[in-house]
């Protein structure tokens, strides 16, 4: 089976205040339905790698292919369209718009994609909220939800366009143990039942330990995979 994501010999420099090599020829593969965690001490390069894999950072050397598409050299507009259609993002902070309801927040990426009617988008958004057990809060302002609830809404938003890959940067970093377990259970369900691929960067070793595969980084290199 061919990987859904292939990164080859990724090299990344930070240039300010002077050139510093952050990633040293990192090669990486992700398969369909795989739930993978990247771990390592702060500053080891794991979040930097995730941002390159997510196509949000294009200033690197090496190769990046997702869904059989070579993404090196693509324009920012092409990458933005690709991300919205094929990738979903969950961050440590939920980044919900506080003046909008949970439902409206989830709908936004699908409305931007323009693939479905507004009615279809709303129906899909409610379905995703149901998946994360937040459908009963659909009409509630996101600012009135708890931290754990907001993160589940953020996951529903990441799922709205049925992305091939969900990328999560410290998704449980601001959550207590019970809500961290809920997020883990959602990701595990998505990988097993929906065959969506998941990459998480995490300091939570319990969270990482339950995933299918752990990649450990140190000083800009993968030391175990």
List the helices and strands and how they pair.
Elements: E1 5-14, E2 20-30, E3 35-39, H1 46-53, E4 61-66, E5 69-70, H2 76-86, E6 87-90, H3 102-113, H4 118-131, H5 147-159, E7 165-169, H6 177-193, E8 197-201, H7 205-209, E9 213-218, E10 221-224
Parallel strand pairs: 3-8, 3-9, 6-7, 7-8
Antiparallel strand pairs: 1-2, 1-4, 4-5, 9-10
Tell me what the structure shows.
The chain is built from 7 helices and 10 strands. By secondary structure, it is α/β, with parallel strands linked by helices. Strand 1 and strand 2 (20-30) form a beta hairpin. The protein has a single domain, classed as P-loop containing nucleotide triphosphate hydrolases (Rossmann fold). It has helices spanning 46-53, 76-86, 102-113, 118-131, 147-159, 177-193, 205-209; strands spanning 5-14, 20-30, 35-39, 61-66, 69-70, 87-90, 165-169, 197-201, 213-218, 221-224. Helix 3 packs parallel to helix 5 (147-159) and helix 4 crosses helix 5 (147-159).
